[in-house]
């Protein structure tokens, strides 16, 4: 019986939500001032994302350098390997140039 009540209450809530959303008017079109503000916010967000990406790369480099230094102090040789984060666009032009030079 409680399951039936819960199911009935859930369906009532979903139905009322759908009815409330259906009655909302569409958003008004953006004017030039709002468009300019949106573009400025988009540029600011992109700039912040780029800064965060640079900070992340700098932190990763610091951690890697510290790890290599600790391993060197223990007497172990560590050779860093490039992962998928390396720029893939640099490899194909060099490979194409080397392939053309061999022919």
Please give the structural blueprint.
Layout lengths: L1 H22 L8 H43 L16 H12 L1
Structure description:
The protein is mainly alpha-helical and 103 residues long. It has a domain at 45-78. It has helices spanning 2-23, 32-74, 91-102. It is flat. It starts with a helix and ends with a helix.
> How many H/I helical runs?
3
Give the H and E element order.
HHH
Radius of gyration: 29 Å
Q: Indicate the percent of residues in helices.
A: over 70%
Portion in strands:
under 5%
Largest sheet: none
Structural class, by secondary structure, is mainly alpha
Q: Please state the overall shape, judged from the principal axes of the Cα atoms.
A: flat
Mean pLDDT figure: 82
Unreliable residue runs? 90-96
C-alpha termini separation: 81 Å
Give the total of beta strands.
0
For this entry, give a set of tags.
about 100 residues, mainly alpha, 3 helices, about 75% helix, about 0% strand, flat
What is the structure about, briefly put?
This protein is mainly α and 103 residues long. The chain is built from 3 helices and no strands.
């Amino acid at each position: 019986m409680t399951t039936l009540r819960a199911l009935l209450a859930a369906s009532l809530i979903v139905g009322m939500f759908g009815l409330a959303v259906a009655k909302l008017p569409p958003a008004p079109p953006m004017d030039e001032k709002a468009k300019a503000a949106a573009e400025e916010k988009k540029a600011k967000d992109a700039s912040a994302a780029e800064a965060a990406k640079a900070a992340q790369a700098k932190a990763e480099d610091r951690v890697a350098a510290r790890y290599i230094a600790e391993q060197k102090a223990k007497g172990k040789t560590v050779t860093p390997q490039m992962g998928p984060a390396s720029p893939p666009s640099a490899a194909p032009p060099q490979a194409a140039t080397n392939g053309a030079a061999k022919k």
